[in-house]
Amino acid sequence: MKQLFSLALLAVLAGCTTISQAAPRQDGIAGLGESTHVDGPLVTPLRLIEDSRCPINARCVWAGRVVLRVRVAGNRTMELTLGEPQEVADGALTLVAVAPDRIAGEGQDIAPADYRFTFAFDGGY
């Protein structure tokens, strides 16, 4: 009986797999907690600090901004503001796009998991 239980347990455990962290993307686009290579540097969006962009179906006196905390090259944490280059190594890292767009009247905020951030790096890293 003990051997039968042990075999059953082994069969169940054999079906288990370990969950590993996904390989970094190579296209400069990442969601929160994902990593992407941006023409050299590895960038990981950690936390959305601000998204005050004007909704695409509204008229605003201010376009708003997006501020994002990121980890760069595995050890440096910094804040990026949409469209504003930041010095990194021998170049400049820029948050160039944020998706999805905000839409007025929907009554719901964008879920953190739905955000996608696009980065560009100008330099030789």
TrEMBL record:
<protein>
    <recommendedName>
        <fullName>Lipoprotein</fullName>
    </recommendedName>
</protein>
<keyword id="KW-0732">Signal</keyword>
<feature type="signal peptide">
    <location>
        <begin position="1"/>
        <end position="22"/>
    </location>
</feature>
